[in-house]
Amino acid sequence: MVRIAFVMDRVFRHFGLSGKSFIPLLISSGCGIPGIMASKTIEQDNDRRLTIMTATFIPCGAKLPVIAMMGGVIAGEVAGYQESSFIAPLMYFVGIVAVLVSAIILKKTKPFSGKPAPFVMELPQYHIPQVKTVLLHVWERLKGFIIKAGTILFLACVVMWFLGGFGFENGGFGLVEESGNSLLAVIGGFIAPLFAPLGLGDWRICTSLISGVMAKESVISTLEILFGGAVKDALTPVAAASLLVFSLLYTPCIAAIASIRRELGRKWAVGMVIWQCMIAWVAAFAVRWLMVLFMR
Q1: CA distances from 246 to 38, 48, 95 (A)
Q2: What is the CA radius of gyration of the chain?
Q3: What's the pLDDT tens digit per position in 127-165?
Q4: Residue 59 — φ and ψ, nearest 5°?
Q5: What CA–CA distance (Å, rounded) separates 21 from 68?
Q6: Which of 22, 87, 174, 212 is most buried by its number of CB atoms within 10 A?
Q7: What are the E-state strand segments in 136-205?
């Protein structure tokens, strides 16, 4: 990877990034958290901040269920996904474009201005990986997933269950029979006007995006629960494409936000969330209306 970073340095400099940004971006395709942590190898603060601000645009493993489900709806072949095989590569391409466009825009602002630092990195000799080292790395990642599944994902499920099961009905607060009377519906309905121009004005879609802040996998599970397992019948291909693009580009999960706060501070973490939500909204809006025009 060090050698690839050296080769990519010449390309990335045209977009204001350092060749060392390649490694965090590549790692972020698995999970954004280690990708953010890998940015520590970048010495210059501006380059490191710029890398962290854009790294989570790359689709991580948690976004694959969203790509699979929405890709099936877009292709109209949910049963076997035969016609949606092009969706996943396309979404990775969209993520890369979002990284490069964001880097160009942010580089023109004062906090990120300046030329990337010269590329200086040791090129280690090639070695065959040791079995012990590989097993240790596998265990670290497996342990991280178990902790995430047992804490963040579990907490997200509990919170969404409470908000979706309780609300105001028949003049009082308690368990509701109709999901439209739940607290989740109230929250979703409040933010629905923001998503109406994207074709995502349904409160159920909005609440699935809220749950996605806890963990990106929750977007699909929340949709399945709220639509009663009939997501493919509830979404049109245009709405599915808009939802897919927005889900891939908007704020990363809360664990990644915490990592950004730890690396850069609260101000930068909040700024990153706002920036990525803006990019996601604009991209989803463009995708929606392009599809509307071409599908006429």
Answers
A1: 25, 25, 11
A2: 21
A3: 787 888 888 877 876 776 677 656 766 776 777 778 878
A4: -60, 125
A5: 28
A6: 212
A7: 166-169, 172-175
